[in-house]
């Protein structure tokens, strides 16, 4: 039985890489943000608006305990998941955890792509976003670094290279 959990900052590519890795390995893919949205029948921004960040973190914690029990899966977390409650220790206790690490410049570039709404960074100018990421990443990194494996995606900034990331992760995780 294999269970892989991907952690890292917003925009690192957890969802994108997790999905590609699942496709390549035949494991089933779950994304914790999407799982929360399905179970709550609300979007992440709606949950933040209605219950605040504290309310979201409680829901995230409870539903992590459901999603992380599935077997033969790749589970991509939300950017904040490892940093609340005992979530990171819990994930390490039952899965192979991987930190997808990326520099603030790369995270900024990724966050400008796609349509995902992220309440914590909405409405920020480019300069504000860079400053916010730098500060928050420095607070969060200690949690992310508890993952059993670390993979730096900063040098792999294009779609073709998502396949390179998948191949490297398969080797790293013996998948
Ligand atoms: N290696 C990459 N090269 C180019 N684009 C990428 C790469 N990784 C991710 N992206 C793009 O960056 C954006 C953010 O990626 P993704 O949504 O997978 O991040 P995430 O880590 O899941 O973020 P969140 O914590 O908010 O869920 C997407 O539009 C995705 O297509
Ligand atoms: O980094 C974070 O705290 C977040 C990341 C997203 O995946 C979502 O879970 C939500 O927008 C919060
Ligand atoms: Mg994601």
TrEMBL record:
Cofactor binding note of this UniProt entry: Binds 1 Mg(2+) ion per subunit.
Cofactor: Mg(2+)
Superkingdom of this protein's organism: Bacteria
Reaction(s) this enzyme catalyzes, per UniProt: shikimate + ATP = 3-phosphoshikimate + ADP + H(+)
Principal localisation: cytoplasm
Quaternary organization: Monomer.
UniProt name for this protein: Shikimate kinase
């Amino acid at each position: 039985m294999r269970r892989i959990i991907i952690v890292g900052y917003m925009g690192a590519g957890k969802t994108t890489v997790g999905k590609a890795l699942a496709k390549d390995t035949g494991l089933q893919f779950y994304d914790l943000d999407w799982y929360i949205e399905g179970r709550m029948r609300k979007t992440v921004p709606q949950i933040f608006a209605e219950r605040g960040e504290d309310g979201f973190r409680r829901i995230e914690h409870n539903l992590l305990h459901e999603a992380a029990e599935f077997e033969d899966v790749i589970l991509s977390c939300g950017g904040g998941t490892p940093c609340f409650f005992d979530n990171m220790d819990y994930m390490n206790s039952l899965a192979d955890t991987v930190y997808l690490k990326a520099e603030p410049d790369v995270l900024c570039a990724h966050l400008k792509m796609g349509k995902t709404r992220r309440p914590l960074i909405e409405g920020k100018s480019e300069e504000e976003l860079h400053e916010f990421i730098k500060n928050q990443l420095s607070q969060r990194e200690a949690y992310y670094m508890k993952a059993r494996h670390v993979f730096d995606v900063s040098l792999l900034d294009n779609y073709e290279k998502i396949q390179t990331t998948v191949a490297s992760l398969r080797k790293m995780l013996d998948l």
